[in-house]
Specification:
Layout lengths: L1 H6 L7 H9 L1 H27 L12 E13 L12 E17 L2 E11 L18 E14 L2 E8 L36 E10 L4 E8 L20 E2 L6 E2 L55 E7 L11 E10 L2 E11 L4 E12 H5 L8 E10 L2 E12 L4 E16 L8 E19 L3 E18 L5 E2 L10 E13 L4 E10 L3 E10 L3 H4 L1 E11 L15 E9 L1
């Protein structure tokens, strides 16, 4: 989640985009209804199966029926800019998840995971682009068959979630499933944020070499916006007028909007087009120019931004498929391997396109001014460029804990730039990401005689190879750092054999932003310890509102999570 939150830098819905949204609202509603119907049928099937008497399930051994009911109730602890309501309700999310695992044949297994989510309308989002039901879901989350033709060989086909990464909080090697921006805040489990994908997956054990090889072929069969990280679709940030006096509220967990271009411009200042419309797109080589009949002259724009999306097309071309493989070997206390994954960037960039047509803004103000202020339309494409990811990892059992490490290399990765020499606002740079971590689990009698002390330390680095001058975060004036470093420290322990558990997580980025998350969890003896209650405070801090976790610094909250599992 944390790494995903740090990357969530962009603003998708704008006053321009609303027109596009209106054009497709009927189709989107139809898709939503269809999805809800199929999801309800799937959940209904699972509930029927779950309600069978136990003796009916004894026909086949190895069938498991598990699940949970969960509630997240949270309140923001401070007021936020750009909201129309003082209501502090941050979340009232209700989950139902049902899971069925079983063997149809000795060599053929099945897993079905159904999920239902309901959230109410939130006062704090009134006036924003969010539709009621946007967070709600009734879906068959996972559905796949596992075929084992031989010992150590298996094939998995269906809708799945696959985790390759070694990190607890940063998505370094965790590159298979895109992240769902609706569920990517700190109180959500990391797995809950992954979007399931349809794929064919093979896992082959090579016993003589104590190794395995895993391959994945992932045709993009999910809805277009869920083939990638749906940042620009949800959650949408607030939009603010040029004078800063009016605004459209954003979604609850949307990032802080780009509001920095509010000062007068000179005729030599590069224009981020759409700023006057509250649309912080990447850049423009156009300039504000003096307009004789308007003062101050530098406050008026020379292009109208028009936005369109370019999602991966679902596998119609080879480059829009996802595929790759991963090795794993265990020797002498070491586990190591390498992997390759061809995919698309889950976080988009904004490409500056061509101009077309024109608008006579002078005539719109006064017919006598016709022809004096004519500006073209400028196309901007929100696109998800393809990327190849090469990675490696190595873990080592130590006398005290486990050391973990992983690294990924992305050759010719696409970035946005403010360099006026790049008319498309896009450039290619090589990118290196890496993780070093140490997990410790030990007894510490002075603190607890009935629970272990669990400590996790992680260091995450991100390095751009080559010239990083002018690189900017898509949709923001925030520069992309040539090298960036984030640290995680987590410590926790249980008391009375984990009836009580206390812990705290610190995350700090060297740009002086991060989060502090203390928590206490209670698991009563009733219902065979199937119930749990966790109270967590999520305190987000940052040097400014436009970088890293600072984008969320007005969204500190306290959350109570109640869950019953079976």
């Amino acid at each position: 989640m944390i790494e995903g939150s740090v990357k969530k830098l962009g603003n998708g819905k704008s006053t321009i985009c609303k027109e596009r949204r209106g054009c497709f609202v009927k189709r989107e509603k139809t898709k939503r209804r269809t999805g809800i119907v199929w999801g309800a049928l799937s959940l209904g099937l699972l509930i029927v199966l779950f309600s069978f008497p136990a003796y009916a399930m004894e026909v086949a051994e190895g069938w498991d029926f598990t699940g949970f009911i969960r509630n997240n109730t949270g309140l923001f602890t401070g007021n936020q800019d750009f909201t129309n309501s003082g209501n502090q309700l941050a979340t009232e999310r209700n989950w139902l998840r049902l899971k069925v695992d079983g063997q149809i044949l000795p060599s053929l297994g099945v897993r079905l995971v159904g999920q239902g989510i309901f959230e109410p309308e939130y006062k704090i989002e009134e006036g924003s682009t969010v539709d009621f039901g946007e967070y709600n879901e009734a879906d068959l989350r996972e559905a796949y068959l596992t075929w084992k033709p031989l010992d150590g060989q298996k094939m998995i086909v269906g809708r799945q979630i696959v985790t390759w990464g070694e990190s607890l909080a940063f998505r370094v090697g965790d590159v298979i499933n895109p992240q769902d921006g609706r569920f990517a805040f700190s109180f959500a489990n990391l797995e809950d944020t992954r979007i399931p994908q349809w794929m064919v997956r093979g896992v082959h054990q090579i016993t003589s070499a104590r190794s395995s090889f895993e391959w994945i072929f992932n045709p993009l069969l999910t809805e277009a916006k869920y083939r990638v990280d749906p940042i620009f679709a949800e959650p949408t940030s607030a939009t603010v007028s040029a004078d800063g006096k009016t605004f459209t509220p954003g979604w609850r967990f949307a990032i802080y909007p780009e509001t920095r271009l509010r000062q007068p411009y000179t005729t030599t200042t590069p224009l981020a087009p759409g700023q006057l419309l509250g649309v912080p797109f990447a850049r423009s080589v156009s300039y504000y120019t003096p307009i004789p009949f308007l003062t101050p002259a530098d406050n008026y724009f020379t292009e109208i931004p028009v936005v369109r999306y370019k999602h991966p097309d679902g596998g119609h071309t080879f480059k829009d498929l996802r595929f790759g493989g991963r090795t794993s070997t265990t020797i002498g206390g070491y586990q190591f391997g390498a992997f390759y994954w061809h995919t698309q960037e889950y976080t988009p960039v904004i490409e500056r396109g061509k101009t077309y047509g024109s608008n006579d803004l002078g005539a719109a103000i006064n017919p006598l001014l016709a022809g004096l202020w004519v500006v073209p339309n400028r196309e901007y494409i929100i696109r998800y460029p393809e990327v190849n990811i090469l990675g490696a990892y190595i873990n080592k059992d130590m006398p005290l804990g486990v050391l973990r490490s992983e690294v990924t290399y992305r050759p010719r990765r696409t970035y946005n730039t403010l360099d006026p020499a790049e008319p498309s606002a896009l450039v290619k740079r090589d990118n290196l990401q890496y993780l070093l971590a140490w997990d410790i689990q030990t007894m510490f009698r002075p603190l607890s005689e009935t629970g272990t002390i669990d400590i996790n330390l992680e260091y995450y680095g991100n390095w751009i190879i080559g010239n990083a001058k002018y690189l900017n975060v898509a949709g923001y004036l925030t520069p992309v750092r040539k090298d960036d470093h984030t640290f995680l420290f987590n410590i926790g322990t249980g008391f009375d054999y984990d009836k009580y558990h206390v812990g705290v997580t610190f995350i700090h980025n060297v740009q002086n932003n991060g989060a502090v998350m203390p928590s206490v969890k209670y698991v009563p003896d009733a219902f065979n310890k199937a119930c749990s209650f966790e109270l967590k405070y999520i305190g987000v801090y940052g040097r400014n509102d436009f970088e890293g976790m600072g984008l969320f610094r007005q969204k500190s909250m306290v959350v109570l999570t109640s869950q019953f599992s079976w």
